[in-house]
């Protein structure tokens, strides 16, 4: 309710706002003072644990260039029209049964979005995964393959290309039952298909041990000083020719640092995050033989304790 000047009543009267029609109506004579007004208030938001299937949002999502119509098609969502007249429920059923060339893509994009949210990935990685899946789907050669593994592989490749790599184990944890072997095969298939399309090898991005350090240290609940020491240690390890998996190197560095500090972690704690180990004593011996002064410096600086080779060798 509010006050406004009515041209018929020749005075200020109380008015009623009809939000569904966007009209401002005089409460005394019924004159429509303003029509089709725009509601500038904030839009409703729907959260995962609220509203159930009742979505109060009155607008659609953003346009999607990967879909045929940009994602702006019209659907019959409610049995009542804008005028309030009852519409047959069969209209909505017939529309759902109609041909929709993007139905499979929409379902796949929703699955990728769900996996991205569960892994806490940024929107750019999700969009890149959508693009990769769209390119593979356009070739019409993925029929009969495990769809969950294919989508998980798209997300894995997108993480690599955006320099935010995730381990296959992490991707597998949100892949709706797809195994590591299936995801690996799907990844090889996608890389092969994209290579045939472009005529050149697909750039996957290089994985470094430092890409996993912050996340692994956070999962293990390590202190800030220990994390800084592990970060410096993994930078030092890049100077050596350690022909092991970056995940293994990251695991070994974390274990070495925790054993040298007061923040010790048992080996079974690393198994929770699928960290594979190399011979960590051999690697620390390489560092010691290479530059004992540099190692001693950052251990003492970050861990605030003296570095003892003898103590470490007897662990």
From TrEMBL:
Q: Name one GO biological process term.
A: transcription preinitiation complex assembly
Query: Can you list the GO cellular component terms from the UniProt entry?
Result: nucleus; transcription preinitiation complex
UniProt keyword RNA-binding present? no
Task: Keywords in alphabetical order, please.
Answer: Metal-binding, Nucleus, Repeat, Transcription, Transcription regulation, Zinc, Zinc-finger
Q: What is its main location?
A: nucleus
Segments traversing the membrane:
none
Instruction: Give residue ranges for domain TFIIB-type.
Output: 2-34
GO MF, one term, reads: zinc ion binding
Signal peptide extent:
none
The places in or outside the cell where this protein is found are: Nucleus
Q: Which PANTHER family match?
A: TRANSCRIPTION INITIATION FACTOR IIB-2, TRANSCRIPTION INITIATION FACTOR IIB-RELATED
Please state which protein family the record places this protein in. Answer: Belongs to the TFIIB family.
Q: What is this protein called?
A: TFIIB-type domain-containing protein
Q: Which organism is this protein's natural source?
A: Populus deltoides
């Amino acid at each position: 309710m509010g006050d406004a000047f009515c041209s018929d009543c020749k005075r200020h009267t109380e008015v009623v706002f009809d939000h569904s029609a966007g009209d401002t109506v005089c409460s005394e004579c019924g004159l429509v003072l303003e029509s089709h007004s725009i509601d500038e208030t904030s839009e409703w938001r729907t959260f995962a644990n609220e509203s159930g299937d009742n979505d109060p949002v009155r607008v659609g999502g953003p346009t999607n260039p990967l879909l045929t119509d940009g994602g702006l098609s019209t659907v019959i969502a409610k049995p009542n029209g804008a005028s309030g007249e009852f519409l047959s429920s069969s209209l909505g059923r017939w529309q759902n049964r109609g041909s929709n060339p993007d139905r499979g893509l929409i379902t796949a994009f929703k699955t990728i979005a769900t996996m991205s949210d569960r892994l806490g990935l940024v929107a750019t990685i999700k969009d890149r995964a959508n693009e990769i899946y769209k390119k593979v789907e356009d070739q019409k050669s993925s029929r009969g393959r495990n769809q969950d593994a294919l989508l998980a592989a798209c997300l894995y490749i997108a993480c690599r290309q955006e320099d935010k790599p995730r381990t296959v184990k992490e991707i597998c944890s949100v892949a709706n039952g797809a195994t590591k072997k299936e995801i690996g095969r799907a990844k090889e298939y996608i890389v092969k298909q994209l290579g045939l399309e472009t005529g050149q090898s697909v750039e996957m991005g290089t994985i470094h041990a430092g890409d996993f350090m912050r996340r692994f240290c956070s999962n293990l609940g390590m202190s800030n000083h220990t994390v800084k020491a592990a970060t410096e240690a993994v930078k030092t390890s890049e100077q050596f020719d350690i022909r092991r998996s970056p995940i293994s190197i990251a695991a070994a560095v974390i274990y070495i640092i925790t054993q040298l500090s007061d923040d010790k972690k048992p080996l079974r704690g690393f198994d929770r995050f699928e960290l594979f180990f190399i011979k960590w004593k051999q690697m620390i011996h390489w560092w010691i033989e290479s530059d004992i002064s540099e190692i001693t410096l950052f251990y003492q600086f970050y861990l605030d304790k003296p570095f003892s080779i003898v103590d470490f060798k007897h662990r």
